[in-house]
Amino acid sequence: MTFREEATLGRTRMAERLGASTTAVLAVHLQKHMVHADSPVAQMAGFGAMVRKTGLFDHVNAVLSAARAAGVFVAYVGSDMSGAEEAGYRYPVRGDFCRMVAGEHAGGEVLRPGHWGFDIHEAVAMQPGDAFIANRQLSAFSGSDLDAQLRARGIADIVVMGVATSFAVSGTVWSAIDRGYSVILLEDCCTAGSEEAHEAAMTCLRPIADVWKSADFVAAIG
């Protein structure tokens, strides 16, 4: 049996063991400032265009609907810099993306409740029963209580989707692995600023996470 065949068989067996009560779905950084067509950050980084090109929202909604119907814990992860400065947090300013986030378009009020860009995009809106996890920077676990919430629920498998594959999605996957969670990464529910950036990130993540399509998750949890 080849490595690819063994990997496929492994994914099939893991899918058979996917339990609703021990699985969490994380929708990472689907806030307007990251994915809305009118957001300067989404425009400059290329996220908005890639969201439209890939039909990301349709895939994400299929997963969210299936997860909610099965009673899976659904959590939206959003950047919230409220109180960050008071807590001693500083915006990184090395690297083009970090400079952009720290700048006038995404810094300051954009990443705080009450600003248009802070809200989850209406195309993938939260529903009653969904959780909101406020984080800082490039991991859902950064500056958040996500780990505590997952452990309190007995979560073993984390299903990750969102924007950007090369930034917060990757950061979340690595952080989850560091904490002992098993990760399922939904390839068609993630995107980056370009197809090349998305695929480069996926290449790095495939060895440490099971990579599924949205339809695979719907079939496994249904």
Can you describe this structure?
It is a single chain. By secondary structure, the protein is of the alpha/beta class. Helix content is 42%, strand content 17%. The protein has 10 helices and 6 strands. A 6-stranded parallel β-sheet has the order 3-2-1-4-5-6, sandwiched between helices. It is globular, with a radius of gyration of 17 Å.
Secondary-structure element sequence? HEHHHHEHEHEHEHEH
DSSP helix fraction: 40-55%
By DSSP (H or I, 4+ residues per run), the number of helices equals 10
CATH class: Alpha Beta
CATH fold-level name: Rossmann fold
- Low-pLDDT stretches: none
Radius of gyration, taken over Cα atoms and rounded to an integer in Å: 17 Å
The first-to-last residue Cα distance is: 30 Å
Strand order in the largest sheet? 3-2-1-4-5-6
Write a concise synopsis of the structure shown.
42% of the residues lie in helices and 17% in strands. It is an alpha/beta fold and 222 residues long.
What's the topology here?
Elements: H1 3-16, E1 23-28, H2 32-35, H3 40-45, H4 47-54, H5 56-70, E2 73-79, H6 96-102, E3 131-135, H7 146-152, E4 157-163, H8 165-178, E5 182-191, H9 195-205, E6 210-212, H10 214-221
Parallel strand pairs: 1-2, 1-4, 2-3, 4-5, 5-6
